[in-house]
Design a protein that fits this description.
The protein is built from 15 helices and 13 strands. The protein has helices at 16-30, 48-54, 87-91, 109-120, 140-145, 201-205, 213-234, 236-241, 249-259, 268-276, 278-282, 304-314, 330-335, 351-356, 358-376; strands spanning 2-7, 35-38, 58-65, 71-79, 82-86, 125-129, 149-151, 170-172, 184-188, 264-266, 287-295, 319-326, 340-343. The protein starts with a strand and ends in a 9-residue tail after the last helix.
Length: 385
């Protein structure tokens, strides 16, 4: 019997590879004879590099500027001419010094340095996963790292961060790295928000990055000015990108990727599943196990577990979900294609203890699944604990 383990991370607790390993431990305790294929997944945010490395990509480490300018080590992944970049590794909330927000000054410069490093490796196809960012600078920092100059009325270069864009008067694109002309760039994001407005980068996402109401207003005005100057410098491409789905992703980094780097946006989970060869690895399996920390309404719209479930259903393979907690009803889970659901909170009701002891609890769940498989040879359809 072959089982494919394809979970996403349990945010704040375990990485996707760790989730898969703990489940494997439990499965083997109860059913030692299982053939288990570990294939952690991600949706373009944190854990994206881990997911593709687990499928055969090579991890590459480099030193970049973190979101507030501090030097940090960030990884990307390479396979031949293909590079996968995880924006969160260079410009994410998780790498803020001491977790201190910097809503006006946080920059995507380090993400641009990762793109440059991928070019140095000779990559001609770059996937940019943009979840988990700490920034609202419209991707200006990323572009600056790639040679674009942003200047104020005195001709001085702007300091980093979205707040400084309020003083932007000139964008000089002539220094943009010419190697980008031969690159296909994919923006991996499940966010379809525009750059500006009530559904835009500042209004919707900046508060999650420490922005006050006054900060949000300042950032919105700064991004609007950024757009106007970019339209003067770039023309139609800048205008077309303003309301394109995903332009507001990662504090407007999506806009820079779409308008300046000619990126194509695709749902993050679709990109990652394609790179990891999920469909081929699911084909002929007896069971797929997926999941994430919180299985909720958002999970139903482009998150990793739904992508895995869709691939499993297409292959005619039953799929079960494992999560820290779920707010979805059994009926909703059945409609989403899951034959069974297991939550850590079914074992331990205290969510703090669930996060602290996630590995041990996942081992218990793995053993429960393994016991059921050993006794029946399959998961019982629509049976929920």
């Amino acid at each position: 019997m072959r089982i494919v383990l394809a979970p996403d991370k349990f945010k704040g607790s375990l990485s996707a590879p760790e989730v898969a390993q703990w489940l494997e431990t439990g499965l083997r305790i109860a059913h030692p004879g299982l053939d288990i294929d570990l294939m952690p997944v991600a949706d373009g945010g944190e854990g994206t590099v881990d997911a593709v490395v687990a499928s055969g990509f090579t991890r590459v480490s480099t030193t970049v500027q973190g979101p507030t300018g501090q030097p940090i080590t960030a990884d990307f992944a390479v396979n031949g001419k293909v590079a996968v970049i995880e924006m969160a590794a260079a410009s994410g909330l998780a790498v803020l010094p001491n977790g201190t927000f910097s809503p006006l000054a946080a920059s995507t410069f380090g993400t641009g340095q990762l793109v440059s490093a991928a070019l140095d490796h000779g990559c001609t196809e770059i996937v940019l996963g943009v979840g988990g960012s700490a920034t609202t600078d419209g991707g200006a920092g990323m572009l600056a790292a790639l040679g674009v100059k942003f200047k104020d009325a005195s001709g001085r270069r702007l300091p980093p961060g979205g707040g400084a864009l309020a003083k932007l008067t000139n964008i000089d694109l002539t220094g943009l790295d010419t190697r980008l002309g031969g690159v296909t760039l994919t923006l991996a994001s499940d966010v379809d928000n525009p750059l500006l407005g009530p559904d835009g980068a500042a209004a919707v996402f900046a508060p999650q990055k420490g922005a006050s109401e006054a900060h949000v207003k300042h950032l919105e005005n700064a991004l609007e000015r950024y757009f106007r100057i970019m339209a003067n410098a770039l023309g139609t491409a800048a205008v077309d990108a303003i309301d394109a789905p995903g332009s507001g992703a990662a504090g407007g980094t999506g806009y820079a990727a779409l308008a300046v780097l000619s990126a194509m946006r695709r749902p993050g989970i679709d990109v990652i599943l394609g790179l990891t060869g999920l469909a081929a690895r699911i084909d002929g399996a007896d069971l797929v196990i997926t999941g994430e920390g919180s299985l909720d309404e958002q999970s139903l719209f482009g998150k990793a577990p739904m992508g895995v479930a869709t691939a499993a259903r297409a292959a005619g393979v039953p799929v079960v979900a494992v999560c820290g907690r779920t707010t979805l009803s059994p009926e909703t889970l059945t409609a989403a294609g899951f034959a069974h659901s297991y939550a850590l909170t079914d074992i331990e009701s205290d969510t703090d203890l669930c996060m602290k002891n996630a590995g041990a609890l996942l081992t218990q769940i793995g053993a429960l699944i393994g016991t059921r498989l050993a006794s029946t040879g399959k998961e019982e359809e629509n049976s929920y604990v």
